[in-house]
Automatic annotation (TrEMBL):
<comment type="similarity">
    <text>Belongs to the citrate synthase family.</text>
</comment>
<feature type="active site">
    <location>
        <position position="344"/>
    </location>
</feature>
<dbReference type="InterPro" id="IPR024176">
    <property type="entry name" value="Citrate_synthase_bac-typ"/>
</dbReference>
<dbReference type="Pfam" id="PF00285">
    <property type="entry name" value="Citrate_synt"/>
</dbReference>
<protein>
    <recommendedName>
        <fullName>Citrate synthase</fullName>
    </recommendedName>
</protein>
<dbReference type="InterPro" id="IPR002020">
    <property type="entry name" value="Citrate_synthase"/>
</dbReference>
<keyword id="KW-0816">Tricarboxylic acid cycle</keyword>
<dbReference type="InterPro" id="IPR016142">
    <property type="entry name" value="Citrate_synth-like_lrg_a-sub"/>
</dbReference>
<dbReference type="InterPro" id="IPR019810">
    <property type="entry name" value="Citrate_synthase_AS"/>
</dbReference>
<dbReference type="GO" id="GO:0046912">
    <property type="term" value="F:acyltransferase activity, acyl groups converted into alkyl on transfer"/>
</dbReference>
<comment type="pathway">
    <text>Carbohydrate metabolism.</text>
</comment>
<keyword id="KW-0808">Transferase</keyword>
<dbReference type="InterPro" id="IPR036969">
    <property type="entry name" value="Citrate_synthase_sf"/>
</dbReference>
<feature type="active site">
    <location>
        <position position="288"/>
    </location>
</feature>
<dbReference type="InterPro" id="IPR016143">
    <property type="entry name" value="Citrate_synth-like_sm_a-sub"/>
</dbReference>
<dbReference type="GO" id="GO:0006099">
    <property type="term" value="P:tricarboxylic acid cycle"/>
</dbReference>
Amino acid sequence: LGLMSYDPGYMNTAVCTSRITFIDGEKGILRYRGYPIEQLASKSSFMETAFLLLYGELPSEAQLKHFCARVYHHQTALHADIVALLQTIRHDAHCMTSVISALAAMSALHPEANPALEGQGVYSSRKTRESQMFTLLGAFPTLAAHVLLRRSGSSVPCLPAPSLATLLDPARPRAYVEHFLVLLGLGKARPGEEGPDPRVVRALDAILLAHADHELNCSTAAVRHLTSSGVDVYTAVAGATGALYGPLHGGATEAVLRMLQQIGTEERIPAFLEAVKAKEAKLMGFGHRVYKNYDPRAVLVREVAYEVFQVYGADPLIHVATALETAARSDDYFVSRKLYPNIDFYSGLVYKAIGFPLDFFPVLFTMGRMAGWLAHWEELLMGPEEEKKIVRPRQIYLGPAERAFLPIEARG
Ligand code: CMC
């Protein structure tokens, strides 16, 4: 092996320093820029927390207003080329495939982010970097809404575009989420009501906040990995979205719901857990590379689920989920492996109650995580030179030693 260390899955390899997110997996602690996630979830908003992640400090009132204005500017419309692109994708395609394609295509619309210019220092301009961040944060919910409407069979959707003044109304601290729900006509407590219920807006906002960053998870590592090659930020986040799509990462939100539906009733839990222990199935929404204790985000999301159930009534699957958690947490297989519910265990029940289809769940995860990806992108670009090396792990070759080529007629 020489001086190389063999570390599949990077279980023990630190590839950067970071000042964004702190996790103590043994104690179940998560902090963004030093602030406990519980305090942010109860006192902050997704937009304010996005500012915190991107700039390192909580904003003043004026700073937050300026930030929101720049982000919301991109939320009011989606570029016609992206709308047209989405129409070319099968309407029954998984929502994440459309999102990945649209994010990659946004690269073509932003020549200022072109990697060919990177060598000339385009990203050394704070203005250019901020412009990419505002564009991606602002355009994403509108892009996601178009994807969902397309998924629901709508042709070119005609979406309402509120004025910036409406979005910046101080009475709407969570306009980012509120506008997204308005676009989709979701979040109303009862049909016929004018807009989304504030409890639903708060719930979805808190979930986005809880998803916003989680240090070097698979997709954030992908952003840093891709950025290390000098590629533009749109391509980097498209790649990260691909990583997030997988069922072991953000796709778990959807997989948990499918699992709960498949189990169906509490009586079937013991048989399902036996299949998990026999390694015939996985208990989706359980386990984590870093947490060897309860994921603090799962606590938050479970509370949010009960708040949303106050609006829509409890989903019967919540009883399956809580009984499954109780059974697993008293079973030695899960206890000895320190497997606890993670953020994805309860989030799908919230999304389902609001009315999102299952294959849209990972898109909602992506919406929150975009803030963290951009914070890591910025941190890498502005970080120490020695951390800007192209990511290029080594391998241990186990294939054949040198051998002579055999012409096809000589092969047996
Ligand atoms: N169900 C059953 N067994 C599990 C599970 C699970 N969900 N998770 C881990 N294990 C077992 C695993 O089989 C192994 O057992 P053994 O020692 O007998 O081989 C042991 O626990 C250690 O697991 P591991 O796979 O080595 O752990 P990891 O750190 O490589 O994987 C994980 C972490 C999240 C991929 C894994 O726990 C998992 O697949 N969980 C289910 C998918 C999921 O919920 N993903 C969302 C993660 S949190 C949000 C996010 O980041 O997206």
